[in-house]
Design goal:
heterodimer, A: about 75% helix, B: 2 domains, six-stranded mixed β-sheet, four-stranded antiparallel β-sheet, 14 strands, about 25% strand, cell membrane (chain A)
């Protein structure tokens, strides 16, 4: 039963080339941090290409949130759709992007548990490349989701006074904030490498951020303690800043600053934390 | 390709007293290991014996609790990146991206090895061709057969020729034809000068490929030597006899025990007997011994349906080397305790 059968067929011919192949090896070089990150970004994009289902969340959630909440809360605000979209659309943009950030964390959690992760780790590349490369594909995903929200708004009758420049500035701000959240979920994913757990934790954080905010309801109608939370909720500031930029309303400079400070603060904590947790895993 | 900057005379792997504890379980319980450069070294043991953990430690993927290990002259803890630049890991745990194509897998890994776009493409094409995978290069790996996947896995380890290649159970689960293809690949890689450390559960595989074999059991190395040295301790092979009539088994057992040195084991099959043969001084004697035994059985009027002479199984080798069967490893703790 243990007769070593002769190796026949194309494989036998192929193996003749192995020696040549090994002798003709390309030179070893350490991939730069940027090149390695870009490669992981490309890998994530290729995965989307092969399995476009991965994008369903990033498409469906912005549509649901924008359409549903616009008509749900629109009636409570006086005026035409064009008028209440001025208040709501920058909010649903901020909320949509915040919610879809969690899928990046889930993807990293899944990556970390596969054997592919071990192979990546066995290469002498910069440790942050997998995490930061993931951010590149996340950024593309957030831009895509933002485009959906903006186009839907235009279809429903929103005419931003801030023009294309204002809208782009708002989208840039919202995506930047989303990327800081991505780093938070990356840290969570490296701590608990289980996609379901990452999604649960992200939901617990994102629900109050989304609803205990000024996105749908004027804080003046809320009890004092809730108003206090809304005041410090970074998503409130992001939504206010986006409103100001898209509608070209004055007096939102402070919110833009606060949104940027929140983005910088989350990044400053979570980026080194994610790197540390990644290194700890190997 | 082994014009490495560090001294070439050092062993490829030198480890002393490696201990790794997962909770209650001592996965590695004092492993000492020396692998010469250019050698194919076989690490033989059952599931959960500590083979994968040893590779993970030596490939800088798992930290250990005590001991020292140097790989290609570099310390496993303080010179991790220097080791990572010169070794490749393939097998059980170092897997591929299932949803990407074979070609894309190689391209991505090529870029991570620092190859330019053009060099990466060229290398991917060359590797696919040499591993007979050109036709499958454009398909997602998830749809590959076991043999194709294993070949791509090994190809992925050769994007930049490593000085040391870890192969973790390279043929587990493969059909005989694919297994032979992988064996041939391993021989070619070794012939080209790369040191290979391979783990296996199959005595035959270690025998076929490895110049030096260490037998590992419960986190300890219980025997080490060349294939011939181990065989002289284990025995040259196993004689399997299947009778026509189960009633005659006790009689056959007696006859065999008298004719040959060794213990006769009744097999699970009520018609079968197996016997581990002691190694005779020269290999041609095996035929004479077996012939003698069969003659004795025929003289005793024992009807025989089948006779086979095989290599000792891992179980038999373990029994001979350790005095206890390889046995069901508690669980596959190496996987559980990642």
């Amino acid at each position: 039963m243990s007769t070593p059968a002769a190796v026949t067929g194309p494989a036998a011919a192929g193996t003749d080339r192995i020696g040549l192949l090994l002798a003709g090896s390309p030179a070893r070089r350490r991939a730069g941090a940027l090149a390695a990150s870009a490669t992981f970004g490309r890998r994530a994009m290729l995965k989307i290409k092969h399995d476009p289902k991965q994008l369903v969340d990033s498409v469906a959630i912005p549509i649901l949130i924008t359409v549903l909440f616009t008509y749900l809360f629109g009636g409570a605000i006086s005026g035409s759709p064009g008028e209440y979209l001025e208040v709501l659309l920058p909010g649903t943009l901020s909320m949509s992007i915040a919610i879809v950030t969690m899928y990046g964390g889930a993807r990293l959690a899944k990556d970390v548990t596969t054997g592919a992760f071990d192979r990546f780790r066995s290469l002498p590349t910069w440790r942050g490349a997998l995490v930061f490369g993931g951010l590149l594909s996340d950024a593309a995903r957030y831009l895509f989701a933002s485009a959906i929200v903006v186009v839907l708004g235009l279809v429903m009758g929103y005419r931003p006074d801030g023009g294309a420049g204002g809208v782009l500035a708002a989208v840039a701000l919202v995506v930047a904030f989303g990327l800081s959240l991505s780093l938070l979920w990356a840290a969570v994913a490296l701590l608990v490498p289980d996609p379901a757990v990452v999604i649960s934790i992200a939901n617990v954080v994102l629900m109050p951020l989304s609803f205990a905010s000024n996105i749908f309801v004027q804080p003046s109608t809320m009890p004092g303690w809730l108003q206090a939370f809304v005041e410090v909720n970074p998503l409130s500031h992001v939504a206010t800043a986006a409103r100001g930029l898209m509608n070209d309303a004055g007096g939102t400079g402070a919110s833009v600053v606060w949104a940027l400070v929140a983005t910088a603060a989350i990044t400053a904590v979570c980026a080194p934390l994610a790197l540390h947790l990644y290194s700890r895993r190997g | 390709m082994s014009k490495s900057s560090t001294a070439g005379d050092q062993p490829a792997i030198e480890a002393h007293g490696l201990v790794k504890v997962f909770g209650q379980n001592r996965a590695l319980d004092g492993i000492d290991l020396t692998v010469r450069r250019g050698q194919v070294f076989g690490f033989l043991g059952p599931n959960g014996a500590g083979k994968t953990t040893t590779i993970r430690v030596l490939a800088t993927l798992t930290r250990f609790d005590s001991g020292v290990a140097r790989v290609l002259g570099h310390d496993v803890i303080s010179e991790r990146d220097a080791i990572r630049a010169r070794v490749a890991v393939t097998g059980q745990f170092a897997a591929l991206d299932e949803d990407l194509t074979g070609y894309e897998n190689l391209i991505i890994l090529g870029r991570l090895h620092g190859l330019s776009r053009a060099a990466g493409k060229q290398r991917a094409d060359d590797l696919l061709a040499a591993f007979d995978l050109t036709h499958a290069g454009g398909r997602p790996v998830g749809g590959y057969s076991g043999g194709m996947r294993r070949r791509l896995d090994i190809a992925a380890g050769l994007i930049v020729t490593p000085d040391l290649l870890f192969l973790d159970e390279p043929t587990t689960g493969l059909d005989p034809r694919s297994r032979n293809q992988v064996w041939e690949l391993v021989r070619r890689i070794a012939a080209a000068g790369t040191t290979v450390l391979l783990t296996t559960q199959y005595l035959e595989e270690a025998d076929q490929l490895a110049e030096q074999i260490a037998v590992i059991d419960q986190g300890r190395i219980v025997a080490e030597g060349t294939s011939a040295q181990l065989k002289s301790r284990v025995g040259s092979g196993t004689l399997h006899v299947r009778l026509l009539d189960g009633e005659q088994r006790a009689q056959a057992q007696q006859v065999l025990a008298g004719a040959l040195e060794g213990t006769v084991h009744p097999a699970a099959d009520p018609l079968a007997l197996s016997m581990l043969l002691a190694t005779p001084a020269d290999a041609t004697d095996v035929g004479r011994l077996v012939g003698h035994a069969l003659t004795r059985l025929a003289e005793a009027q024992v009807g025989i349906a089948e006779v086979a002479l095989g290599q000792p199984s891992l179980d038999e080798a373990f029994l001979a080397l350790t005095g206890h069967p390889a046995g069901p490893a508690t669980t596959d703790q190496e996987d559980v305790n990642r």
